Amino acid sequence: MRVGLLPNEGGGSYRFVIIALAIVGILISSLPVIVVTIMSFSAADNTGFPPEALSLRWYWDVIALFTADDASSAQSVVDSTLTSLLVAVIVMGISTFVCIPLAYALARGDRRIRGGMELLFTLPLVFPLVILGIAFLLIAESLRVDIGIWRIVIPHVALVLPFVLRNCLGAMNGISVEIEEAAVSLGASPLRAIWDVVIPLMKAGILAGLIFALIISFNEFTITFFMYTIDVSTLPIWMYSRTVSSLDPSTLALSVFIIVADVVLIVLVDKLIAGRASLF
Amino acid sequence: MSTQNTHLHIDGVSKNFGDVKALSNIDLKIERGSFVCLLGPSGCGKTTLLRIIAGFESASSGRLLLDGSDIAQVPPHKRGFGMVFQSLALFPHMSVARNIAYGLKLRGVSGKEQRDRVEELLNVIQLPSIADRPVSALSGGQRQRVAIARALAIQPKLFLLDEPLSALDAKLRDNMQIELRQLQQKFGVTTILVTHDQHEAMMLADELVVLKDGAVRQSAAPSVVYQQPADSFVADFLGAANLINVGSVQGGQVQLLGKLTAVDTAHADNTMMQAAVRAEHISLAPVAQAGGAAVGTIEFMRDLGPSTEIVVAVDGESLRVRSPNVDCQGLSIGTQVAVSVDPSQVSVFKA
Amino acid sequence: MSIALSRSRALAFSLPALIAILPFLGACFYIFRFSISGDKGTIDGYSIQPYLDLMTPFFGRSVWLTLKLAFVATLVAMLLAVPLAFLLTSLRSPLARRCLTVTILLPLILNLLVQAYGWILLLGPSGVLNSSLRSLGIIDRPIFLLFNETGVLLGLIQTSLPLAVFPIVSSVRGLSQEHLEAASSLGASQWRTFFDVTVPLLRPGLFGAASIVFAFNASAFAIPLLLGGRRVQMMGVAIRDMISPLFNWSGAAAAGMILIFITLIVLLFSSWLVRMTSENVRH
Predict the structure, then answer these.
(1) With contacts defined as CB-CB under 8 Å, which chain A residues touch C115?
(2) Domain of A34?
(3) Across the interface, do A139 and C113 touch by the CB < 8 Å criterion?
(4) Which chains does chain C touch, 3 or more C-beta pairs < 8 A?
(5) How many domains does chain A have?
(6) Chain C within 8 Å of A123 (Cβ-Cβ)?
(7) Which Pfam family name is an example for this entry (chain C) (predicted)?
(8) Which residue range forms the structural domain that includes residue B245?
(9) Contacts (Cβ under 8 Å, ≥6 apart) of C227
(10) Given CB atoms, is B134 within the 8 Å cutoff of chain C?
(11) Which one of A228, B75, C73, C209 is at 20 to 30 Å from B22 when CA atoms are compared?
């Protein structure tokens, strides 16, 4: 093609500028992650660049950190990681459970209501996280009872709702009413038709939403930064408290584990929605 | 066809997309001021050929000679060929007038001249009062005309159309075909139109180019292509032709419906042949008047108004016959009839 | 008609999600209520004092800095996002497309700390950039890019880039190749086509993306905290400082309301712009 957004032959200066800017964008996106990964293999104690020798010592350190017997202090990395995972799984479950019926109702219901509701559920995406953090902190503090990990779960649910709902709505888009009517004409009750026909067809979108909720909650820093307590803390908070004064290479090795997990999960989401829906 | 009159010479053009051969060795000479239709089923390469002419794709090999000079390296925006796209591609963010004037604006034509030219073109397409409307407010036929006016506004060297009428309903399409042909003659512009609709091609073309699998099967005037299809594909693609297996050539002749029919001397004896006969060129007669003609049985009849569609089984083949209603008195399903054809209306080619 | 969604069933289906978002709405209201509280530490009475107390040069500078950094970061992010969206939509190989998607999306999702570490390693005094420049003999002493506006700006651009790219990708998908070819056949060069056809047709998507990116950047907290240190007092950080050392809750709430107000204005203004400029655009 010689004419296009990015022509693959000819195109002169236009093509050059577009590709150059895209490369700058890719570099800005990826350089920090690449540098963290490289430095995590450094053999040195400091984080000077370039690393003089390569080793896996920091990875052994991380493993030791997780398996040490005296990981008894409440602030330990194991507790934080487990809390992070528990919160992420609960957030994932709740947000998906509430978004599937909502997506169905919005897709099949009144168009005007749909617009308003979509806007309402997009709000957490543009709402300043700091303020949300402070507000939730104020509310949690004013409660008389200790709500344990729910003080983190509840704000996280609000935070992931936009992403999960987008994915469920995207999944509903391709499902025509006729397919439900077919099921009903064969004798299924309307609810049964939803369960037997609509939900299975939504599966890919639902799974994508699930994973999105999981990774966003697991990586969330800002709100948790306000909400954490000595008893309930997550992995990003643990990393912050450890590196607030100086950066130590074992944290980089731990970061690489997180990067790998995130990349795997994003690839999974991308596979599931495979160009049918936009990510958000 | 004299060489000076060749406007565009497509000289051995091939195009590969990876391993897929989209066009192989296309040779065409397009006369100045003529209306050429590229006709073929989807995937035959006709759109690719048009896009190569327009410059949106480059040929893998071969040359494109416009008035004798190679334009392969000229980028599409410098070719000055007006094009009407399948989706019409009117710019939705511009009014009708701005759409039509866009090409003129790029050529640095003054504002007043632009307005005059737009007005003139809107008169030509018989929509004088829509200049300031947004494109979204137009009907299908109006959009069609605006797209044509926009392409003609730049006084194109070549006028290219990529299935522009395919989105219109049947009646509107018929009217637009007549209008398009009149416009083309008025402007005298060399025109290439891509279509998969044989009626459209017959209606519009001075020269019909039938493509299949990236190769030209026949290139001739529509009446020639219709009357003397070059092969069974062309015969079949250009409408209701009966393809009849007529066995092998014996002494320069084949057996067609019980009659010996001469074939082109180029075919050697024992070559297996096929004949194409159009439904309207088969005549039916009472068996008593058979006189050596083949005898068949009527399998199906349907009165279509001006004519009757009849299917006759002869020698294990079902032939479609269309005959005027007056000739069909006394015929019904199961009747035996004598079947004959006018030899001058038969094309015989290699099977 | 048995299939049609009845009003009561629609409500029943929406109820769980409405309950889930209720705490969020409660938090929004709570902040608003606190910002007009007569007391700094609890909700007590009504007063506009918290807002009046913010009329200081310090807070004014913070607002100005926030607007400036968010604006520049949004501009640069958009400038990079459009080519990235073009690249992403024109890649043929699914593997390449997937790699690029992950590369672009990762900064939005990945733990912000990890990315801050990356920038510290890149821009720090003994980081990649300074070491490289020094070994090339271009500089003698390290240049300071961290804990100032440059570092924060880079971090903001990086983390907000995906928010720009993916909405633009959706609008680019709706753009027909034939519109570009039509412009070209009428004589427009690639650049002319870009400015005369591509940009106007993408305009609604571009404004939408830019406004979300701006809102995201204006309310950034972790990036200025981690990359700006105490020196780059964007509003997010300033608000935190009102609570953490000062316990000025009502002041923080009032500052928060101002921040929300700013993002709201930007969002409304951009949706107004979209409506104004796309009056005739109907795809």
Answers:
(1) 32-33
(2) 12-64
(3) no
(4) A, B
(5) 2
(6) yes
(7) BPD_transp_1
(8) 240-350
(9) C116, C119, C120, C146, C147, C151, C152, C154, C155
(10) yes
(11) B75
